[in-house]
Specification:
Number of helices: 25
Strand order of the largest sheet: 1-12-11-10-9-8-6-2
Number of strands: 21
Oligomer: single chain
Largest sheet: 8 strands, parallel
């Protein structure tokens, strides 16, 4: 009899309850006790939504980030926050965002701000984690209080026997692999210190009646060097004596060559991703011991399409007969990466909605598969028939395929991705036209989304504000933004994106082939949520999307105003993508649509156009052997979108919060005139890549960490730019924040940008002095 379990569930709540509770606390509008009470309510609701399974996850909830939670559980706190006398959750917020909370009127002398921890992407998702920090002196000690408290909560909610609680932790090897040692320490040298704490944690859970623990080791789906393979053997040999059963859990891909390694590990069970790693299933069925649990992730935890249940049963039924109760079924990965409940979507496109499944529906699909395997298909015949009809309707719908788009794809040639001249010639032409100073200043695109902006958007969507009134309100915000930038002395301005709800959704709403949810929120980091649009069909651009807003902004100033677009790779990677054609084909469709917009902006007189690609790296396959294939079509997509313009038009791109050092050569082939990227939180570490690779074009290393409420000083920004100037010629350096400013407030943005402009002035003066000597 197959058993059912889940690896993790969305944290924010169906209506982003956690987001609002966090932000109220951070603003000083609620107490820590109120925030913790909101967490209790959300955890109870999450367990109720997972009813009907045999095992439910405990410990997958987080107030900010599960890997940061693991650091606190292991006692691995950065030195700068050690000795803090406040609540542990406040201290966690200090690591995550630079401070816990500063209520209005608090004495700045009592400010608890520190440098925020580095943040980067979780594997190939749009979720961000706080990077664990190590030094040669790092020690570990157990603090299991959070996990044990949530275990007690779960039992009080009835998660005791069936369903039984299954604590979730990040495994020791993945934990070390995802961290950084600033002093060059070999992270694996810390493994002997770390393993006793893991053993202590597992034994503590056993003492509290836990039988199974889910130990997540997703780096097993990556290519592992020999020392890391040995680390797995050493780690799980050391944990064999613990009194719980370990479910070694992998996801986001197949085990591949690591399958033999995993088969030798002394664990009681193994979970594999049978969606992205289907090739592993049959070899594991043939070799995985019959007395060990084999958990198959058969429901896609990364996308929103309904599972073809008949197809799944076709290959699962023989497996179930062979393995019996040693077969467990689950989603492929945590459902953290999908929205909560499709039932909330009463306004979603009525043709597309029946093709979808969010977290709650995915667990219902899992229960249907379990019932069909354990009691026969006849026991759920009506539900299986309905599923089959909806799967077939999607594949045959005329909404999915557009002959005009197919014809445009067939006409693509390599010439579409080529500029007329090389960078050096373009830079001279652009300098003549733009007349910018040394160390030109700009921002990344968005400015604060104020309560007034959000109110106007809500009123417009609700029909209480007509189109003319909404346009007037947005133009007033754009005018304010332009005036503020002129007052600050910025060199290249932006219109501020007041009219945009999200950098992907805004464009998707104006492209054919997209559908949109109302409550389809997914956590990106901390309280930040995104609502990925859904690509269900061929992509085309019915009309211009941004031209009139940028034309209006440019009419208000003599300084250049950037046209702001989201690039095709980011549109792809930050959407729920159709799974019936290669991602490369969808990317090329998006590239052709964005290219049309770029050309229209140029025709309207826009001479600086930014095409953001912050998601370029997260689309990389987890195995390096497959990187080049992805980079080839991803870079081609960007070049198609960007390169239909004259040499005098300056193309910018932007990237943030990913490790780009190992793909800098591919980034260079994008041939953007200027690239801006996040470097402030990593203290310019990203620029280490330029020690060996001479990046040929302009670059703006971010000097203002906009994801922290801490305000940078002029001196700090000068220091960062001086570090950059040791690697990049000053003539090619720009000064800018590391990301858009929409999540910040004007009272933060104004002094930070004032310091940034002053930093640029200092750099120019120093350069002038150097030239005169």
């Amino acid at each position: 009899m197959a058993l059912l379990h889940n690896l993790g569930f969305p944290r924010m709540g169906a209506h982003r309850e956690l987001k609002f509770a966090l932000e109220a606390y951070w603003k000083g509008a609620s107490s820590l006790a109120e925030l913790k009470a909101a967490g209790v309510r959300l955890r109870a609701a999450r367990w109720a939504q997972q009813a009907g399974l045999d095992y439910l996850p405990v410990g997958d909830f987080s107030f900010y980030d599960h890997l940061l939670d693991m650091s606190f559980t292991l006692g691995n706190l950065p030195e700068r926050v050690q000795g803090y006398r406040g609540d542990a959750l406040d201290n966690l917020f200090r690591v995550a965002r630079g401070r816990s909370v500063r209520p209005a009127g608090v004495n700045p002398a009592n400010d608890d701000s520190v440098a925020a921890g580095e943040m980067t992407k979780w594997f190939d998702t749009n979720y961000h984690y706080i990077v664990p920090e190590f030094t040669r002196d790092t020690t570990f000690h157990l603090d299991a209080s959070r996990l044990l408290a949530e275990l007690a909560e779960a039992r009080a909610q009835g998660v005791a026997t069936k369903p039984a609680p299954k604590p979730v932790i990040v495994g020791p090897v993945t934990y070390l692999a995802l961290g950084k040692a600033r002093d060059g320490t070999d992270r694996l040298a810390l493994l002997p210190r770390l393993l006793p704490v893991y053993a202590e944690l597992l034994d503590a859970l056993a003492a509290h009646g836990v039988s199974w623990v889910q130990v997540d080791e997703p780096i097993l789906v990556t290519e592992l060097a020999a020392p890391w393979q040995q680390a797995f053997a050493d780690a799980y040999a050391a944990l064999i004596s613990t009194r719980v059963k370990i479910l070694l859990t992998t996801y986001f891909g197949g085990l591949g060559e690591n399958r033999a390694l995993v088969s030798r590990l002394p664990v009681a069970g193994l979970h594999v991703d049978a969606v992205r790693g289907r090739a592993d299933v049959q070899p594991l069925i043939d070799t995985w011991s019959q007395d060990k649990v084999l958990s198959l992730g058969v429901i896609d935890g990364r996308n929103v399409w309904k599972t073809d249940l008949a197809a799944a049963l076709g290959w699962l039924e023989p497996v179930a007969r062979q393995r019996g109760a040693q077969l467990w079924l689950a989603p492929s990965c945590s459902l953290l990466h999908v929205p909560v409940d499709l039932d909330s979507e009463t306004t979603l496109d009525s043709t597309v909605r029946p093709w979808l499944a969010f977290a709650v529906q995915k667990l219902n699909e899992l229960k249907l598969l379990g019932a069909a395997l354990n009691a026969g298909r006849a026991s759920v015949a009506d539900a299986l028939q309905d599923n089959a009809e909806q799967v077939a309707a999607r594949h045959t719908s005329p909404r999915v395929h557009d002959p005009a788009v197919q014809a445009a794809l067939a006409a693509v040639t390599p010439a579409l991705g080529q500029r007329h001249a090389g960078y050096a010639d373009r830079a001279r032409a652009q300098a003549t036209w733009l007349k910018l100073p040394l160390f030109p200043t700009t921002t990344i695109g968005s400015f604060p989304q104020t309560p007034e902006i959000r109110h106007a958007r809500r009123e417009f969507k609700a029909g209480r504000l007509d189109a003319a009134g909404y346009e007037a309100a947005m133009k007033a915000e754009i005018a304010h933004c332009i005036h503020a930038q002129e007052q600050l002395g910025l060199d290249v301005l932006v219109h501020g994106e007041a009219e945009r709800n999200d950098m992907v959704e805004y464009f998707g709403e104006q492209l054919a082939g997209y559908a949109f949810s109302r409550f389809g929120w997914v956590q990106s980091y901390g309280s930040r949520c995104v609502k990925p649009p859904i690509i269900y069909g061929d992509i085309s651009r019915p009309h211009a999307m941004t031209v009139e807003w940028i034309r209006y902004a440019q009419s208000l100033t003599d300084k250049p105003v950037k046209g702001m677009l989201t690039g095709p790779v980011t549109m792809l990677n930050w959407s729920f993508v159709r799974d019936d054609q290669p991602r490369s084909v969808t990317c090329r469709q998006l590239a052709l649509a964005i290219r049309e917009e770029v050309q229209d902006l140029e025709q309207a007189g826009t001479h600086v156009i930014q095409i953001d690609e912050p998601a370029l790296r997260e689309g990389l396959p987890l195995r390096k052997s497959k990187w080049q294939e992805y980079l080839d079509w991803a870079v081609e997509g960007f070049r198609i979108s960007a390169n239909g313009v004259k040499d005098e038009t300056q193309i910018h791109t932007h990237m943030c919060y990913s490790e780009f050092n190992d793909i800098i050569p591919a980034v260079a082939t994008m041939d953007a005139d200027v690239i801006t990227m996040e470097t402030s939180r990593s203290d310019m570490e990203l620029l280490d890549a330029f020690d060996d690779f001479k990046y040929p074009n302009g670059i703006g290393p971010g000097v203002y960490d906009i994801h922290s409420p801490n305000l940078p000083t002029q001196a700090h920004m000068v220091h960062l730019m001086q570090a950059a100037a040791r690697r990049i010629p000053a003539a090619r350096l720009w000064v800018n924040p590391d990301c858009g400013l929409k999540t910040r407030q004007w009272r933060e943005v104004t002094p930070a940008l004032k310091s940034m402009v002053a930093a640029a002035d200092t750099l120019r003066a120093a350069a002038a002095t150097k030239r005169s000597v």
